[in-house]
Write a structure and sequence with these properties.
By secondary structure, the chain is α+β, with helices and mostly antiparallel strands. Among the domains are: 2-69, 2-Layer Sandwich (Alpha-Beta Plaits), CATH 3.30.70.100; 239-327, Calcium-transporting ATPase, cytoplasmic transduction domain A (Distorted Sandwich), CATH 2.70.150; 418-436 and 575-598 and 606-675, 3-Layer(aba) Sandwich (Rossmann fold); 449-570, Calcium-transporting ATPase, cytoplasmic domain N, CATH 3.40.1110.10. The strands form four sheets. Strands 5, 6, 7, 8, 9, 10 and 11 form a seven-stranded antiparallel β-sheet that branches. Strands 12-25-24-23-13-21-22 form a seven-stranded mixed β-sheet, sandwiched between helices. Strands 15-14-20-19-18-17-16 form a seven-stranded antiparallel β-sheet. Helix 3 runs antiparallel to helix 4 (124-141) and helix 9 runs antiparallel to helix 11 (328-341). The longest helix has 35 residues, at 681-715.
């Protein structure tokens, strides 16, 4: 089973590596992924081998806390607002300001020797004692940080908190040691020597390190909440109550009590509480938060509506078809949440480095201390350089680089109506160089119609003469769910042609249908079906070519061994297809159309859409084979489709994309879901993935460069030039680095805002 846990006590990617390593050793664990940004762990394990208690105990033994997140469990069926997690930013803010109350006077007393009571050799004792008393409350306020750091260190799995704890702790203890030396000098009547020792007290560094790190963590927590705002925004779409009609009487009930088949009443300005079908009334519905579509959609009786959308005008009664965790909104929230919690392959590099990062930094700090002592500098000077190395190092930035960008990117995509199922999908999409479109329902509207009827020798016919073909055609197509079958049914309904009873109906995969009417066998399908049945269609060869050249699909119908005639089926190209193809081609992406149509028809449709590469005559079970050929040729392939027969190809492709009106099977098989029926969202999705990867690379670059430059400076490499880095400034630099990484990721949210503004502008023009 799959279970998510809330994790406490994490501070950096080293913590992530530690938990994943320890939990991964447990028997029955198939996969474990810890997310630093969201402070959670997703675990796939065998519940018959491993219990929740054993998992939480394992995390506890590693020095962290774990509690199972039960919001997604089967027993919780209603989509309600989740219990809010403790507001980490509020707690850190309070701790920072309390620490600052003591740190500011401590800093002032340390910096200025002329202050009353603290100046001169006579005030040295009072000065050092006051600094000690001001430092201790700061240590107490940040005791959890120190505790976590030392516990991890003593368990030989140091993390970011270990660097802080050692840096701050050593500074404090060294200050206490200096105070004892000062007391010795005072008792020996060497007050001047005692006064000079005050410059070697680092109480202000011990306090300032903790205060500045807390400030950084506070700013980081605020920024992290913004990157995770997509799920909260979606949850806010759900109203707390709903008006239901019971026995003709209106009642207001909590949203949790809505069930399937309930009748809910929605008035203008209210949010639709659940998925359903309009039973009565009509209205204009704003679906922008789910689809990214800025203009409202008009809905009437029998129209489907989605929970969480807003009825802008009108009045409707809706029969509930799905509520709670079964609703479309719940599924979208789950997708966004899972994607934000997943890991992109590029993150594994950062995780591996972080696993050894902290021990290496501790080793470098010890080497720094030793080198300066060997070079003849005093212990106080050498210690300051070692502490600076400890506190400037930032594994936190490494750990946040990828998840911050993934979380912000999936949130931005959700606002645009583009849902990604995983971080891996976003990274793979970035490398896409070939986009394969299924034809029917993707490039075309998927709503074909009968354009013309021809007899067995290719002459166009109509009226009663056409009914000779249409009657058996609608009879055998009536049981098929194919779009072409629906077109035949619609044509016969318009013409008042009634079906006859069919026996022994058969669907012949990729070819057509067959059935018996009376004593006669009728078949309808493509040329392959006719050829395999031994039916001569040569008299219609020219007619078939002319139909195909017009971009229409010829469907043959036969009676026993004789050809009855041909139906010419036409399908309209989506308005967005041509624009999408042009954008992709300008981006140097190959566009391929995949279809079961014959070569002439396929090329005619592809030409209208601006597509040069066409793979035609492909049976449903052969689509994934064509995708495999492209991948074997070294292409990174995105497959876009909407039907059941597209599912294998969607799975086979590097990236499968399902349009929002596609079948549940196609959506389940896809990696990316386009909520709108607008193919221009395909380039937007590709653009989003590129921006996400660019942000990730920028974050990782700056995290690495920051450490590569900062650590040598902190160690004192620029000392010959008169440049030294005080430990408190090193702590500030560390905090800034992790905050910068998260703020950089937040730029992705502007992508969604720009997309929505552009959409509104286009609609106005």
């Amino acid at each position: 089973m799959k279970q998510r846990f809330n994790i406490t006590g994490m501070g950096c990617a080293a913590c992530v590596s530690r938990i994943e390593t320890e939990v991964g050793k447990l028997p029955g664990v198939a996969e474990v992924s810890v997310n630093l940004l969201k402070n959670n762990m997703t675990l796939e394990y065998d519940e018959h081998v491993l219990t929740l208690g054993q998992i939480t105990d394992c995390v506890a033994s590693a020095g962290y806390g774990a509690t199972p997140d039960l919001t997604d469990r089967d027993e919780k069926k209603k989509l309600t607002k989740r219990s809010p997690l403790p507001d980490e930013s509020a707690m850190l803010k309070r701790r920072f300001f309390l620490s600052l109350i003591f740190t500011l006077p401590l800093f002032i007393i340390h910096m200025f020797d002329f202050l009353p009571f603290f100046s001169g050799s006579g005030g040295a004792g009072a000065k050092s004692l006051t600094m000690l008393l001001l430092c201790m409350p700061v240590l107490f306020l940040n005791r959890e940080m120190l505790k976590n750091g030392f516990v991890a260190l003593f368990k030989f799995h140091p993390n970011m908190f270990s660097l802080i704890a050692v840096g701050s702790g050593v500074s404090f203890l060294y200050g206490v040691y200096i105070m004892y030396r000062m007391m010795y000098y005072y008792t020996s009547n060497q007050s001047e020597a005692a006064f000079h020792l005050t410059h070697e007290i680092y109480f202000e560094s011990a306090a300032m390190i903790l205060t500045l790190i807390t400030l950084g963590k506070f700013l980081e927590a605020r920024a992290k909440r913004k990157t995770s705002s997509a799920v909260n925004a979606l949850l806010d779409l759900t109203p707390q109550t709903a008006t239901v009609e019971i026995g003709g009487v209106e009642s207001v009930i909590p949203i949790e009590e809505i069930s399937r088949d309930d009748i809910v009443i929605i008035r203008a300005g209210e949010t639709i509480p659940a998925d359903g079908i309009i039973k009565e009334g009509s209205g204009s519905i704003d679906e922008s938060m789910l689809t990214g579509e800025s203009l409202p959609v008009d809905k009437a009786v029998e129209s489907r509506v989605t929970g969480g959308t807003l009825l802008q005008s009108g009045f409707i009664k809706v029969t509930v078809t799905a509520a709670g965790n079964d609703s479309a909104l719940a599924h979208i929230i789950a997708l966004v949440d899972d994607a934000a919690s997943s890991k992109a392959p590029v993150q594994h590099l950062a995780d591996k480095i972080s696993g050894v990062f902290v021990p290496v930094i501790i080793g470098l700090a010890i080497v720094t201390l030793g080198v300066w002592l060997i070079l003849g500098e005093g212990f106080s000077f050498a210690l300051a350089r070692a502490v600076s190395v400890l506190v400037i190092s930032c594994p936190c930035a490494l750990g946040l680089a990828t998840p911050a960008a993934i979380s912000a990117g999936t949130g931005a995509g959700a606002k645009m109506g583009i849902l990604s199922k995983s971080a891996e999908a976003l990274e793979t999409m970035y490398r896409t160089d070939t986009v394969v479109f299924d034809k029917t329902g993707t490039i075309t509207e998927g709503k074909p119609r009968v354009a013309a009827v021809f007899n067995g020798v290719g002459r166009e016919i109509a009226g009663d003469e056409a009914s000779y073909i249409l009657t058996p055609a609608v009879s055998i197509e009536l049981q098929s769910g194919h779009p072409l079958a629906k077109a035949v049914i619609d044509k016969c309904t318009e013409d008042g042609i009634l079906p006859e009873k069919v026996r022994n109906y058969r669907y012949i995969d990729g070819r057509g249908v067959a059935g018996e009417i009376g004593d006669d066998m009728y078949m309808g399908g493509n040329r392959i079906l006719m050829r395999e049945a031994g039916i001569d269609v040569s008299d219609c060869h020219d007619r078939e070519n002319s139909i195909a050249e017009n971009g229409q699909i010829p469907i043959y119908f036969s009676k026993n061994k004789n050809l009855l005639g041909i139906l010419a089926m036409s399908d309209t190209i989506r308005p967005s297809t041509i624009e999408t193809v042009k954008i992709l081609q300008k981006s140097n992406i190959d566009v391929v159309m995949l279809t079961g149509d014959n070569e002439r028809t396929a090329k005619a449709i592809a030409k209208s859409a601006g597509i040069e590469s066409v793979v035609s005559g492909v049976l449903p079970d052969g689509k994934d084979g064509e995708i495999m050929k492209l991948r074997e040729a070294g292409k990174t392939v995105m497959m876009v489709g909407d039907g059941i027969n597209d599912a294998p190809a969607l799975t086979r492709a590097d990236i499968g994309v399902a349009v929002g009106n596609g079948t549940d099977v196609a959506i389940a098989a896809a990696d990316i879901i386009i909520m709108r029926n607008d193919l221009t969202d395909i380039p937007k999705a590709l653009g989003l993935s590129r921006k996400v990867m660019r942000i990730i690379k920028q974050n990782l670059f700056w995290a690495f460069i920051y450490n590569m430059i900062g650590i040598p400076i902190a160690a004192g490499i620029l000392y010959p030039l008169g440049i030294l880095l005080n430990p408190m400034f090193a702590a500030a630099a560390m905090s800034i680095s992790s905050v910068t990484v998260v703020l950089n990721a937040l730029r992705l949210q502007k992508t969604a805002a720009r997309g929505q503004r552009t959409e509104r502008h286009n609609n106005l023009n």
